[in-house]
Amino acid sequence: MSDWPFSIGELTAGLRRYFAEPALKVKAVAERPLSLLHPPTGRVRGLHVDYAVGLETIGIECVVKEPRGTSRAGLAGAGRREIGLYQSLAAQLPMPTPALIAADPAGDWFVMEAVEADIPPEAWTADHYRLGVKTLAGLHERFWNLGDDLGAYNWLARPLNRDFEIHVYAAAQAVEKLTLDDRLPMITGSMTVLGALGQIISQVEQIAGPLRALPPTLLHGTFWPGNIALQTDGEMILMDWESVSLGPGLLDLVGFTTISRWEIGLLPVSEADLTALYRQEIQHRTGACWSDAEWRALLDCAFLWRFIQEMFAWVARVSPDDFAARAADFEAIWLKPVLAVVDRQLRPVFYF
Description:
By secondary structure, the chain is of the alpha+beta class. The protein folds into two domains: 8-113, Phosphorylase Kinase, domain 1; 121-345, Aminoglycoside phosphotransferase (APH), C-terminal lobe (Aminoglycoside 3'-phosphotransferase, Chain: A, domain 2). It is built from twelve helices and nine strands. It has helices at 8-19, 78-89, 126-142, 147-150, 164-181, 185-188, 191-202, 204-212, 250-264, 271-286, 292-317, 320-345, and strands spanning 25-32, 42-53, 56-67, 100-103, 110-113, 216-219, 228-230, 236-238, 245-248. Strand 2 (42-53) and strand 3 form a beta hairpin. The protein starts with 7 loop residues before the first helix and ends in a 7-residue tail after the last helix. The model has no long low-confidence stretch (mean pLDDT 93).
């Protein structure tokens, strides 16, 4: 039992609250294997608990998460964010989440109910992806333009405001490391690519400004099929809220399409169809309306910001062998679109 981050007493207290059974007693615990599609920020294990209520002994399957550090130096801990969501906002969400059973106040560990997907991510159909977009729009509608209210939750990430400089600094450091290491020729061997990366960093306010002007809402942060337990009746249970944040909904939308392609491959429905559906849903639900030109520019800015958040750090730390294994995907999903967006939206940078 010493390997678990919690005590039997803490687990017992959590299960008593969860089941509303003050006489519940934990009889035994055992580790269970988990199948993880996406590498977590820390340690994640399955936990089987046998507990007694009166004369009856019952088992329950749980998940133990031990987040390690943060996704970016200087940001709030991933564990604190996810625990905060479950404790403070889960009841207000328009979709279910796993139930929190026990947690460390500092966010170093927490125990939650295990949730299984009836339909795995690789089996999602076009209709499932469309349902995902509608689910995402429902989440954003619930908290639409409630930035002041959500501001009370200090554990929420704020990528375009309080945490902005941290992300930009990390991106600049990544470019410097790439240049010094000179180990990824696709990037460092091209003045076009290096110039585009320089434009993104030097003109980051031009990218962030239009996004900051949008109504803020609650963002899941990593909304994609691997973080959604899809049930046969169409219910979507949202998991892994470690990147929950406050910002414009387009960041979740762009994350949904790009992360899904990056992790799963070719989708059964086009990104254009999914973004058009989200635009239609948000307009219907909130009245927000954009011209075609405004919408295209906002999508471009959201895409560049997701690149800043996610991919600068990845290319800086990935090994040459691992990069080679993903080079074609990186070029198709990220690099070529980034170059096209930079050409459309940013001013050229000249080097002498």
